Amino acid sequence: MTAMLTVSGVKTFYGSIEALKGVDLIVEEGEIVTLIGANGAGKSTLLMTVCGSPQARYGRITFEGRDITRVPTFEIVRRGIAQSPEGRRIFGRMTVLENLQMGAVTARAATFDRDLERVFTLFPRLKERLSQRAGTMSGGEQQMLAIGRALMSQPRLLLLDEPSLGLAPLVVKQIFEVIREINREQGMTVFLVEQNAYHALKLAHRAYVLVTGRITMSGTGAELLANPEVRTAYLEGGH
Amino acid sequence: MAYFLQQLINGLTLGAIYGLIALGYTMVYGIIGMINFAHGEIYMVGAFVSLISFLVLGAAGITWVPLMLAIVLVISMVFTSIYGWTIERLAYRPLRGSVRLAPLISAIGVSIFLQNYVQLVQGARIKPLPPVIRGGFTLMGDGDNFVVQLSYLQIIIMLLTVGLMVAFTMVITRTDLGRAQRACEQDKTMAALLGVNVDRTISMTFVMGAALAAVAGVMVTMYYGVVDFYIGFLAGVKAFTAAVLGGIGSLPGAMLGGILIGLIESFWSAYFTIEYKDVAAFAILVMVLIFRPTGLLGRPEIEKV
């Protein structure tokens, strides 16, 4: 396996506030890697920094061997990285189809129908809702749309930011099932940020723990799941 | 009845012109949340470019009206588009991300700059243009010998406006560019994550707005036959009123607002007093802002939590 995404010594600032204080991590091709951590630890900031919004002030990010630290955000997706961001950020006043079309901005027109079919296979619900305004759908459906939209750009690396947030347990299970499927059947590399540590660690091949802008622990999903520190900090109090 | 009909025709013609300018205000507001106060001046520049083009074409012996009109429209749209693009690039883009007031002040500066620039280059005197399109239909006369006229020019203005609005709506609702514009309107960061070049999309919005204002400039030049460096201010504020009345940010709203302002002005002039027609239009602005700040077709601002 080769390193697909490397993040080394990355520091990101919001104004004068240091949100990431030197993060190092690697995502290898074909893996599901998860990043867990408490609210405000900087998980979403890390994903957004990978996409150049905001850009890292210090450190280096490479994707498939090329430096992308200073690549503008709208070019990142052309390199092969798609993100389903925190809060889903679907275009609420557009239809489901238009949202998916937005996902395909950088994709070739010739493969649009095929990509659309592939998304429908993963999320049959979206097909029924195609002409509905996306903002009127349930949270779970919106999450499906956000992931589907990201997939429309034919990425090689999929960044998922808290896909389980605010969803009913049954829907969470469904979403995680689809992530597993995308990874297994399409060989998609997935970098998953989660507060729902139990599900994420069970799903992931490897995992990192982020605490106030620094990586404090890493290992396989199973290792961290068994780690007493992780258990007290992130798994106690139900899942 | 005849008198009423005549005012209706005049009001619709005027309203069509306001509507075209209002679209530029509302589009720019929609995408970057800023009132482009220099937009009226863009329209004024369009009027001047059309005046010069008409005169040059006339001197060159091109007098076949459809050809003349087509050439003038294209030249004016190209010129004002360049103006629109440049203004955004120089005066607004560097201020993006700063406080909301900064680009607004910059816009007022651009507006004053353009007025003075045109005054310097073209002189302060009113510039006349001989009628390009003469004649029309006489629809009806009544007992008082009042005759209802619908000129060919008015027909052209209305048809051109309807055609442009349809074309424009298609661009916004059906094309990749339109979809990207609507996406940027809702969430620029997300649009960028999906590969939309946000800066370029905003530039295109200014270009489209400027091109529509140019068409309005051409039509006004032909309709009134006079142009001066100051016409942009009043027309701009009226069109802005139209955009607010329709609901700023809403495209059908801008068209509706434009037509309403045109009708109000026309009927007010006809039945009350012509001196107060601007007062009437701006009284509407005040009333809308007090009683229905989101306008007729606007959507209420929903604060995200």
SSE layout and pairings?
The complex is a heterodimer of chains A (239) and B (305).
Chain A: E1 3-14, E2 17-28, E3 32-36, H1 43-50, E4 58-63, E5 66-67, H2 73-79, E6 81-84, H3 96-103, H4 112-122, H5 124-128, H6 139-151, E7 157-161, H7 169-186, E8 189-194, H8 197-203, E9 206-211, E10 214-220, H9 221-226, H10 228-235
Helix pairs in contact in A: 3-6
Chain B: H1 2-32, H2 39-59, H3 65-92, H4 101-122, E1 127-128, E2 136-141, E3 147-151, H5 152-174, H6 176-186, H7 188-193, H8 198-224, E4 226-227, H9 231-246, H10 251-271, H11 277-291
Antiparallel strand pairs in B: 1-4, 2-3
Helical residue percent band of chain A? 25-40%
| Mean pLDDT over the full residue set of chain A | 92
Spans of chain B of 5+ residues with little confidence (pLDDT < 50)? none
Strand content of chain B: under 5%
The CATH superfamily of the domain at 1-80 and 157-163 and 188-239 in chain A appears as P-loop containing nucleotide triphosphate hydrolases
Order of helices and strands of chain A: EEEHEEHEHHHHEHEHEEHH
Count of distinct strands of chain B: 4
CATH architecture descriptor of the domain at 1-80 and 157-163 and 188-239 in chain A = 3-Layer(aba) Sandwich
Any idea what the shape of chain A is? Answer: globular
Q: Structural class per helix/strand content of chain B?
A: mainly alpha
Low-confidence stretches of chain A: none
Strand order of the largest sheet of chain A: 6-7-8-3-9-10
Strand content of chain A: 25-35%
In the sheet with the most strands of chain B, the strands line up as 1-4
Our Rg estimate of chain B from Cα atoms comes to 20 Å
Give the chain pair forming the largest contact, with residue counts.
A-B, 25 and 17 residues
Provide tags for this entry:
heterodimer; A: 239 residues; alpha/beta; Rossmann fold; 6-stranded mixed beta sheet; 10 strands; B: 305 residues; mainly alpha; two-stranded antiparallel ribbon; 4 strands; 72% helix; globular
Task: Describe the model.
The complex is a heterodimer of chains A (239) and B (305). Chain A is an alpha/beta fold and 239 residues long. Chain A has a domain at 1-80 and 157-163 and 188-239: Rossmann fold, CATH 3.40.50. Chain A contains ten helices and ten strands. Chain A has helices at residues 43-50, 73-79, 96-103, 112-122, 124-128, 139-151, 169-186, 197-203, 221-226, 228-235; strands at 3-14, 17-28, 32-36, 58-63, 66-67, 81-84, 157-161, 189-194, 206-211, 214-220. In chain A, the strands form two sheets. A six-stranded mixed β-sheet of chain A has the order 6-7-8-3-9-10, sandwiched between helices. In chain A, helix 3 packs parallel to helix 6 (139-151). Chain A starts with a strand and ends with a helix. The model of chain A has no long low-confidence stretch (mean pLDDT 92). Chain B starts with a helix and ends in a 14-residue tail after the last helix. In chain B, a hairpin with a 5-residue loop joins strand 2 and strand 3. Chain B has a two-stranded antiparallel ribbon. A two-stranded antiparallel ribbon of chain B has the order 2-3. Chain B has helices at residues 2-32, 39-59, 65-92, 101-122, 152-174, 176-186, 188-193, 198-224, 231-246, 251-271, 277-291, and strands spanning 127-128, 136-141, 147-151, 226-227. The radius of gyration of chain B is 20 Å and the shape is globular. Chain B has a domain at 21-232. Chain B has 305 residues and is mainly α. The model of chain B has no long low-confidence stretch (mean pLDDT 90). Chain B contains eleven helices and four strands, in the order ααααβββααααβααα. Chain A binds chain B through residues 51, 53, 72-78, 82-83, 85, 89, 91-94, 98, 101-103, 105-106, 149, 153, and chain B through 176, 179-180, 182-183, 186-187, 189-198.
